[in-house]
Amino acid sequence: MKKEMLINVAQPEESRIAIMEDNRLDELFIERKSVEAYAGNIYRGRIVNLEPSIQAAFVDFGVGRNGFLHISDVEPQYFRQGGYDPVEIMRESDEMAQRSAEKARETGRGSKTAFKGGRPRNKPPIQEVLKRGDEVLVQVIKEGIGTKGPTLSTYISIPGRYLVLMPALARVGVSRKIEDEDDRKRLRRCLLAINPPKGLGFIVRTAGALRKEEELERDMEYLLRLWKSIVKRIEATTEPGPIYEESDMIIKTIRDVLSSDIDVIYIDEKEAYEKTREFLQMVMPQFVDHLKLYEARQLLFHKYKLEEEIAKINQRKVDLPGGGSIVIDATEALVAIDVNSGNFRGGSDSADENAFRLNMVAAKEIARQLRLRDLGGVIVNDFIDMRRESHRRKVERALRDA
Prior knowledge:
Shape: globular
Structural class: alpha+beta
Number of domains: 3
Strand order of the largest sheet: 3-2-1-14-15
CATH architecture of the largest domain: Beta Barrel
Number of helices: 10
């Protein structure tokens, strides 16, 4: 199976990334310069209003409209008497990290403490924790919709390739999605051997499940450098506004999507190529040789016949190989997908067997379309009826695997 990542930034108004699998579009990412995106960004904010009835605060974070902060997203450091100084606590965590690193260099040993932390189940009323005018350090966890402002959290997390840095949460752990207990134990041992600085939390992401200790250490060093720059920015600002902005789509996709099964990465613009190469050298050096600057006359997406494929993404009806189709209807409440047999010929005299074969084809295409259209939430799939329980289980498994 041949897998390629195509990065198109030749158009100034938007960037596009296509993941190709055997010359077929499998995933698509689009970033438009005209659309403001805040998710993942960190801001200094100021409480402008409290709503005890819904246990929430509205926060001015310097973007022109207020964000929504619920008590469940307020970090316990804010509960202490005298309030929470974001500059102080961030400086404290940075100083603790430096002391821990210096001690490790002196002794030659890493920390053997696995920090415990998390979100307490019982929290005081928000009016006892925050008041109008209080300063908060917040991260956007969900974009605003319509007249609603973005959803905010004081639980700060900064993702790397294999790790997530969680300042002031003070714990290390492994993603719940890594289920193998042997892998979990090995990864915990690796983290402790690396000596994560006290006062800073780290979680191993699913992408780090099979990584070696030196790869995790390289990612931690990258995140610590990033964290120091964030602390300096916090100390230098006094008004609501940005502290840290999430990487652009190219770096973010490289960080989160790039895997060993991708054979080559083409980028059609010199500056973006150099920026991506620099990031790979720092965080994922094993992929540097996969990166290529595309300089041919023919436009990158035209060469792979992608423009026509992209134009089809918003169509309701999607034809399936061998006949049949799926129809996709997205509403505010849910996404409904209907599988139609049409002129499908499954090659069997059994209607139930043909229904099963069509549903297996549809399951793979449904997963692909959900990725291409970036659809989530409640998704209802209406497959062709199947009598056998074994067939139903196989279709469900195929959909999950896809």
